[in-house]
Amino acid sequence: MNKYLDNDQFKLADNPNTQNGNIENYFPIVFHFVIIVLIVISFFNTNILTDDRIHVLVSDGIFQFVSTLLIVIISIINPFVSFSADARAKLQMLTDQEKFSSMRWLLRNKNWQLLKTLACILIVAYFISNQILVIPSLKQGTISGITIILILFFVFSNIVQLIKDPVMFKKKTLFRLSMLYRSFKLSFFISIGLIAAVFLFSALTQIDTSKTVKIEAIVLMVYNVVMAYNEFKILQASR
Hints:
By secondary structure, the chain is an all-alpha fold. The chain is built from eight helices and no strands. It has helices at about 1-5, 25-40, 50-75, 85-95, 110-130, 140-165, 165-205, 215-235.
């Protein structure tokens, strides 16, 4: 992860989303800011964000990272792209040899793309069956309906981008995955320090902070602060 996702290749100033012009999307930073405000309020009013709701938000963050990782894998395989003209010509020469004649079926119709589609389906099935990709809880009433719509929109928009410009799509997805990974990593270390400070404060003052300060809420708040800061830097870099 450190070797491929946390290096100078993914500088915020080199965001591939800005290559076709400045993009000022304030929705992500507003979203993270709202979550931060809700968490701060929940420290004083525990009914705002219950344990279940906090867990759903944490699960959603994990879902974002894992689904982005899965999309990167699919973008590398890309079942919508067949052989290039040069690759097809070289394969044609190779399969003309008797010992490689069994590979001729790859060049017929769209067999190669169908094979890659099957590979993508098996990878997605593996992620789901092994609970690597866990869809956030859909038992939250209206929130569940909104979540389903957002997930479907997310999947559909990614498929469209994957078909239209697979190279740029891969760059954008890798950039997004890198930002998520660096945010998770930084949040992890900051959270450890804050949680240790809370436990130390509780021990020294003999004040029970477990009822007002939840560990998941601290981690979630730190993550959203880091993400909001990164989104702000992306907006500044795009100017």
